[in-house]
Amino acid sequence: LACCPSPRAPAPIEAAPAATMVRISAVALAALLSAPGAAAMGANPIRKVVTLLQKMQTQVTEEGKREAKLFDQYMCYCQTGGKTLEASIQEAKDKIDADSASVKEASELKAQLESDLKKHKASRDDAKETMAEAKAIRQKEAAAFSKSKAESETNIAAIKKAVVALEKGAGAAFLQTPAASSIRTYAMERANLPDASRQELVAFLSSEEQSGYAPQSGEITGILKQMGDEMAADLADAVKEEEGAIKNYEELMAAKAKEVETLQAQIEDKS
After folding, report:
1. Tens-place pLDDT, residues 212-268
2. Distance in angstroms (rounded) separating the CA atoms of residues 49 and 195
3. Which of 30, 88, 92, 160 is deepest in the core (most CB within 10 A)?
4. Helices 45-167, 178-189: inter-axial angle, 10-degree rounding
5. Is 137 helix (H, G, I), strand (E, B) or coil?
6. pLDDT tens per residue, range 104-153
7. Residue 110 φ/ψ, nearest 5 degrees
8. What is the spatial distance between Cα 153 and Cα 27, in angstroms, rounded to a whole number?
């Protein structure tokens, strides 16, 4: 690490005391020599120098130990500090990796939400379009049924009048009514009759005078009753079919309305 110097051993403890002792010896000797009365006073100059040197050696040795201790502490700090710095760097790298992963995940989630939102909007619009188309078709079918039902009821009522009139011998009078014209038109265009019966009935309904017709023969009456029964059965089937169409329409609209509501909630939740 840059903060740590290259490991090196501290200077030998003995080196410092040796140099110091040389300097001290010189000073001590000079001092002793400058004191001419020292020997006379009973002091031993050499002993004093030795004692002084020993004290200095002890002091220098202690200082060397303290310096060695400080050096060891410094080296320990460099080593532990370096490890701590490496750990901090690794922790920062790990955090960067985690943040990058989080950003990627968030980006993917955002893209998914945008895709889901687009699909939900398209599905909602499709459902609304289906509802609009179904409504238009239902209205058209209902109008067609209403018209067909009214015509069928009119024709059935006309046939009943014709049967009653023929059974009473009032066929000639009936032929002058609009009901006779309606039956003739239906017989020519829509009635499910054998050709012979159709021709006979149309011929009868087209005659202005039927004084020679004998109702008791019952031939025309029978044709009219058969045609009336078939029309009533067809009308009943048409009514049943219309009721089924209405039920299917209502179920479809309810399902699509629920679908639109659900999709709208999802769109609002993800917007």
Report:
1. 444 444 788 889 999 999 999 999 999 999 999 999 999 999 999 999 999 999 999
2. 162
3. 160
4. 120
5. helix
6. 888 888 888 889 899 999 999 999 999 999 999 999 999 999 999 999 99
7. -60, -45
8. 149
Give this prediction's pTM. 0.56
Helix (H, G, I), strand (E, B) or coil at 191: coil
Give per-residue pLDDT as tens, 23-47: 555 555 555 555 454 444 455 777 7
- Residue 89: band (very low, low, confident or very high) from pLDDT cuts 50, 70, 90: confident
d(CA 66, CA 135): 100
Confidence of residue 4 (pLDDT cuts 50, 70, 90): very low
Amino acid at 24: I
CA angle 10, 12, 14 (to 5 degrees): 150
The one-letter amino acid code at 18 reads A
CA atoms within 13 A on the CB side of 237: 6
218: left (phi over 0), alpha (psi -120 to 50) or beta: left
Task: Say which DSSP state 214 is in.
Answer: -
* Residue with token string 């002792």: 21
As a whole number, mean pLDDT of residues 56-65 equals 81
* Distances from the Cα of 124 to the Cα of 110, 131, 228, 250, angstroms: 21, 11, 49, 18
The tokens describing 255, both together, are 């399902």
Burial 233-268 (b: 16+ CB within 10 A, else e): eebeeeeeebeeeeeebeeeeeebeebbeebeebbe
Of 185, 195, 192, nearest to 229 (Cα)? Answer: 192
Nearest Cα neighbor of 4 from 88, 80, 83, 75 is 75
**With contact defined as beta carbons under 8 Å apart, do 187 and 193 qualify?**
yes
